[in-house]
């Protein structure tokens, strides 16, 4: 199958590209490299250094590649930046998504996968949150992702585009940016391995639901098949883990004893997240396979290799 992965040089996207290439598919990548790293890409993938907001340039890619499936992972994912620059956030996450959907309809793309987020839910009315949970994003990032979801549904209704929408939990693993705003496993690992002191925002009891990046890649590979179309799926492990628990696990894997600093919780962040992913198991046959301790060990090992210049 001919696949176009947007954001394919990024943390999650590059793992998806690997899985699709290993599955025998032909893969093209759109990434402006504002956050992605070209070295993360397998040489078998064809990279187009293009922003999803550049309609004409993206259309040139569609005209050349004629993809059967689009996996849309390009996004502005910084929650704090989304609150400070909501227009810039929406330009990438909403307008960029519309560009891709419109071109998908015009160029006969059969299936569209959208990477969304549990940030569309925010504070839980109940736990674990399933896909029917009330939508009430507390950040411009979450609002923009839910808007993109609605445009996917619109194009499905108007043009017959088949789709799957994935609401990810907290994805972690190798290639995650230790200098980013999000991704505490990578951030803690990078700081502790460099001898620095990490900051926990809040009192350490805030919980998130973590899922290893190769499990996410596996779900995207499964989503290429003509099963379970036209649904929204939570993808995570179904366990709320506190910030302090994550810090202690990363600290143990890194073999250091540094205590964390604490700072006020940042605006737009929910206190608790725990997702029900049973629909993905029922309709796609997907379930996470990498235990948290194993995933953290792999993440820390990657960042240790990075700090030693071996990656």
Short description:
With 311 residues, the chain is α/β, with parallel strands linked by helices.
Descriptive report:
By secondary structure, the protein is of the alpha/beta class. It folds into two domains: about 1-170 and about 210-235, 3-Layer(aba) Sandwich (Rossmann fold); about 175-210 and about 240-305, UDP-galactose 4-epimerase, domain 1 (Alpha-Beta Complex), CATH 3.90.25.10. It has ten helices and twelve strands. It has helices at about 10-20, 55-65, 80-85, 85-105, 140-160, 185-195, 215-220, 245-255, 280-285, 290-305; strands at about 1-5, 25-30, 45-50, 70, 110-115, 160-170, 170, 200, 205-210, 230-235, 240, 260-265. It has a seven-stranded parallel sheet, with helices on both faces. Strands 7-9-11 form a three-stranded mixed sheet. α8 packs across α10 (about 290-305). It is globular, with a radius of gyration of 19 Å. The two termini are about 30 Å apart.
